[in-house]
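Support request from a user on the community tier.

User writes: "When I paste my structure tokens into the form, the page sometimes reloads and wipes my input. The last time it worked, I copied everything first. Here is what I submitted, just in case something in the input itself triggers the reload:"
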């Protein structure tokens, strides 16, 4: 845990409204809090390092920042408190699939209380299924399985707790096997009470907080207030109809919510905590259906993880009321105490239809959140890399913390859970250590230059706009999704940042409509408009991604789990959802390499083409962008190219294409362009397809699009104090678009 850290309740605030911060502080000294305007988030000394200016805006202290814990782990609270309080005997049943051999006990279901009563069904460290029962104040543990439970296999367990008869009995079946995997009976010397006043919990030892969380899937829990014979193996519907049913929860209902529906007459509904994964294959899945909407009972399971997190739930400590007419820009809450410093970035946006400039910059806050706390593999696998990172951060006075050493704040969708499943649900209500001024992603500046991605890298563009005295407003993904075209239509041109990768359909519709109704779109990144995401329908700040078939990805969604739980739609690449990026901005993802950059070579025919020759005014060199603060070149890391098969307009003009992307870098073609190890879908060689295309095309009603096709392009803007060919080209485009 960090000594001083925090998060904002959202990533953007409209001028005239308020934003709150949740700060945790382990120091005795109370931290000071100041509002700053971020001028440069790049810590590289060659660019001048991190810079900011103080803002004279009061900060209201709501509470004193104190030490806080992080409630990692998802679980379920079933029904109200005292659900089993009066039951002297009952039968319960559920299906489960374990996914991890943990170093501690994993609780599957429990109502154990501190009054020496109740039960707990769990897996111990050896993966044996055990039942813990309190009898006369003593903890009695009964092994239920004959050996270790197999991972990735479904089991049905039925347990009878007959307190009056002083008997415990059980039956375990592995899915598809007719014979019992394990069954047994145990008698006790004294009467016991299996019911308690506390609420029932699934996947946690407690119903109030995550504790000894289960890693795996659970389905169809039901409870009947009767000691049923083991020959009575009821399914969920039959259990719900039993006259003595206490509750029967059908997890195939209301999957887009955090509610658990009790289908019995009592309606003892439950609730999920920390957003475990729903719409996953259950015990009844046969493979005949791939979408949970078509066969909900095949997807009646919930996947719990010990490190799920949707909200740190810290108390609000500070509040800033942003004045009306406050300049739209990148800001941060700067905290200092005992020689420690922390910054919590956010963005101020103008009210809708009240622009203060002709230019809008679209800030990719959904992409920031999806990458939030990305613990890179090098941090764990390469000690030299890790040591170089720490040394460089110290030398540059960069942000000193890395998500790899602080995984207690939750991970990114580029990481996996301890059980190996991909992280597909993330939230911004937590400290995101890579969303900080001064955060570097890659060490080795001789190769990577500043080594920045996302928020710090995007500050190069804002620096460029300030340098050229080009007034701008900021818009974040949240406003774009919520307000659509209405948020864009007031601007003559909209610029993206370096990596606008994750979007909802609403966002893509807004950008397309803006372009087609005369708007000028400038795409300044690579790998943009690539993945489809869904948002929690009732809670702000929670984003879902399913890494379905195809695409460069850190993990792959399991078979049959390609549809979002939040909206029921097919996830994965926008290319597979009838919205390839080439249709929107003329270029789409084609290749990825290490964080190194190269140059573009201008097409000679572009110089004489009146449709684009104005873009090259003042550009005498044919090779441009050979230097930069991102990988030392304007064309690097992730590249986009023109592809008419995928929707690039036939009128699109390639102004320049990048060169020198050697395979030893290594550079690879994206998987969705491969047929075999030697053939590609376009029918061209890898070398021909690994390039960035700087592209321009006119749209309908006077609209236009300029695209650079590279993540590292903006890193070349500050070279030579912004006096370079990439800077001149972008200036030509922005001036034409805003003077029209």
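"...and here is what came back when it finally went through:"
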């Amino acid at each position: 845990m960090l000594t001083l850290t925090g998060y904002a309740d959202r990533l953007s605030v409209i001028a005239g409204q308020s934003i709150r911060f949740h700060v945790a502080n382990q120091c005795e000294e109370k931290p000071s809090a100041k509002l700053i305007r971020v001028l440069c988030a790049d810590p590289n000394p060659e660019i001048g390092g991190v810079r900011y200016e103080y803002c004279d805006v009061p900060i209201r202290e709501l509470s004193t920042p104190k030490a806080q814990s992080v409630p990692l782990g998802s679980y379920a609270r079933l029904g109200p408190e005292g659900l089993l309080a009066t039951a002297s005997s009952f039968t319960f049943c559920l299906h489960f699939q374990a996914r991890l051999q943990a170093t501690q006990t994993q609780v599957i279901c429990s109502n154990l209380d501190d009054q020496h009563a109740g039960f707990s069904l769990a897996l111990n460290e050896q993966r044996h299924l055990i039942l813990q029962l309190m009898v006369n104040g003593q903890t009695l543990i009964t092994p239920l399985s004959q050996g270790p439970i197999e991972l990735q296999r479904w089991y049905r367990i039925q347990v009878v707790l007959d307190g009056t008869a002083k008997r415990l009995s059980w039956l375990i079946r592995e899915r598809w096997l007719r014979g019992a995997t394990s069954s047994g009976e145990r008698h006790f010397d004294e009467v016991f009470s299996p019911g308690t006043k506390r609420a029932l919990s699934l996947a946690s030892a407690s119903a109030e907080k995550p504790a000894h969380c289960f890693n795996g899937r659970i389905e169809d829990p039901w409870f009947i207030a009767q000691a049923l014979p083991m020959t009575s193996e009821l399914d969920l519907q039959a259990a719900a109809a039993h006259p003595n049913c206490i509750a029967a929860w059908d997890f195939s209902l209301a999957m887009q919510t955090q509610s658990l529906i009790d289908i019995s007459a009592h309606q003892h509904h439950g609730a999920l905590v920390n957003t475990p994964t729903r719409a996953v294959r259950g015990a009844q899945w046969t493979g005949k259906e791939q979408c949970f909407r078509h066969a909900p009972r095949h997807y009646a399971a919930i996947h719990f993880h010990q490190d799920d997190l949707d909200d740190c739930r810290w108390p609000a400590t500070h509040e800033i009321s942003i004045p009306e007419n406050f300049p739209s820009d990148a800001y941060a809450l700067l905290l200092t105490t005992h020689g420690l410093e922390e910054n919590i970035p956010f963005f101020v946006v103008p009210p809708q239809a009240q622009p203060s400039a002709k230019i809008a910059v679209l800030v990719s806050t959904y992409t920031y959140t999806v990458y939030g706390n990305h613990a890179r593999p090098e941090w764990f696998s390469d000690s030299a890399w890790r040591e170089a990172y720490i040394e460089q951060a110290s030398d540059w006075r960069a942000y000193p913390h890395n998500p790899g050493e602080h995984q207690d704040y939750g991970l990114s969708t580029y990481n996996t859970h301890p059980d190996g499943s991909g992280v597909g649900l993330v939230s911004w209500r937590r400290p995101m250590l890579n969303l900080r001024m001064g955060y570097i992603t890659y060490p080795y500046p001789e190769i990577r230059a500043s080594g920045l991605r996302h928020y710090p890298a995007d500050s190069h563009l804002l620096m460029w706009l300030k340098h050229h005295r080009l007034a701008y407003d900021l818009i974040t993904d949240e406003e774009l999704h919520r307000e659509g075209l209405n948020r864009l239509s007031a601007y003559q041109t909209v610029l993206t940042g370096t990596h606008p990768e994750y979007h909802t359909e609403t966002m893509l519709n807004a950008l397309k409509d803006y372009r087609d109704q005369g708007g000028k779109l400038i795409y300044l990144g690579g790998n943009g408009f690539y993945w489809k995401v869904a948002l929690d329908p009732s809670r702000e700040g929670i984003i879902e991604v399913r890494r379905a078939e195809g695409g460069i990805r850190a993990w792959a969604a399991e078979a049959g789990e390609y549809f979002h739980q939040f909206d029921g739609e097919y996830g994965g690449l926008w290319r597979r959802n009838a919205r390839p990026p080439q249709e929107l901005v003329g270029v789409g993802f084609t290749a990825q390499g290490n964080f190194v950059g190269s140059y573009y070579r201008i097409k000679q025919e572009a110089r004489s083409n009146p449709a684009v020759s104005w873009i090259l005014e003042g550009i005498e060199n044919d090779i441009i962008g050979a230097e930069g603060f991102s990988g030392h070149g304007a064309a690097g890391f992730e590249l986009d190219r023109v592809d008419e098969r995928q929707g690039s307009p036939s009128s699109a003009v390639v102004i320049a294409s990048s060169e020198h992307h050697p395979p030893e870098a290594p550079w690879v073609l994206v998987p969705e362009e491969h047929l075999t190890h030697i053939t590609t879908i376009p029918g061209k060689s890898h070398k021909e397809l690994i390039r960035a295309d700087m592209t321009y095309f006119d749209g309908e009603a006077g609209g236009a699009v300029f695209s650079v096709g590279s993540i590292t392009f903006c890193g070349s803007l500050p070279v030579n104090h912004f006096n370079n060919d990439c800077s001149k080209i972008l200036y030509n485009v922005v001036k034409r678009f805003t003077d029209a």
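Agent notes: The reload is a front-end session timeout and is unrelated to the input. The mean pLDDT is 96. The radius of gyration is 28 Å. Escalated to web team.
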